[in-house]
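Side project, low priority. Logging it here so it doesn't get lost.
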Amino acid sequence: MAATWDRAFARKLGESLGRDARARNVNFLLGPGVNIARSPVSGRNFEYLSEDPFLNSELVVPYIEGVQAQGVIATVKHYAMNEQEYNRHNVDSEVDERTMREIYFPAFEAAVTKAHIDAVMDSYNLINGTHATQNAFLNLKVLKGDWGFNGILMSDWDATYDSVGAANNGLDLEMPGPRFMNAKGLLPAVKDGAVKESTLDDKILRILRTALRYGFTDRPQFVAADSTYSVADRPVALEGALESITLLKNEGHMLPLDAAKVKTIAIIGPNAWPAVTGGGGSSGSSGFEPVSIVTGIANIAGPDVHILYTRGLPEMPEIFWRTKWEGGVKLATYPSKDFTGTPDVSTPPMIADYKNDWWGPEDKTPRSIRYTTAFKAPRPGSTCCSRRRRKR
């Protein structure tokens, strides 16, 4: 969307997404994401707009206005300085105030003061030593104070870390559920004066006022007139795809392709097939009619052009499950986060033996894991792995 440089398109896209949400009985759209793309390898860049604060600020306003005009609450995220994914629950973004206000805050400020967004999502990380969900400067001084935000401040999923800290420092709604902001955590705090009752009243009023303002209590959110599969809004998605394409170089005037001259096209890359409809994680989506790069080029080129495809890179199982390690693998699991203590040692046949529960919220049992092994290339030259063939 940012690559379109088009405010009018941002408004149309927001309206289309709002209609999509109503067709699915959805009250909150958990977007837009406006964090600054500071590193090309940041894990969630695909969810965000661009590396430019001004461009983000200009496009986020019509996008939000389009969504909320359809009776759906937009949620600007991830507030704030959430520019990397590695160790996201514990990383501390150390930023001075001028840098915050000139680089990281402008799109959030525009979302609040110009688009009048009704939901903001706090990020996972710490900012100058304090988690976003309990950061008084971030939530009380800037968001609710300087910008006058009157909507709902929610946490990212499992990004709340302390009952009293979150309650007293601006968080209104813990997501996806009340792990900390519940009766067990807050009732004793209210009774002993650590949290004022008026503080909780403010959170309840913010949620109720927003629900009433959108009519959630007296009208159905589902709109049967909006198609689940919207043929009318398909041109909007296509417009965005076409307008966002940026041609950096056209060496030898290869483009546009001429089917009368081109006989064979080789397409190389893991994302060329099957169709990739999202960046993964919580933003994962399934298209109604996904078209891969391979399929799209073949359709345009026609039957007289020969299309070849290879992934070009090994998949993770090929590297970690099929690689023959010299002398096996030594696995040492330490009862700490810093490789201290006495490890449990085992010798698994492969490296990819992680457990899915390690990838959820922060593991309740601290551990660090070290694999030790050696790899010997079966032949000189470039190699990555050895393949095992199975007989059927």
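Brief comment: The two ends are 48 Å apart (CA to CA).
Revisit when time allows.
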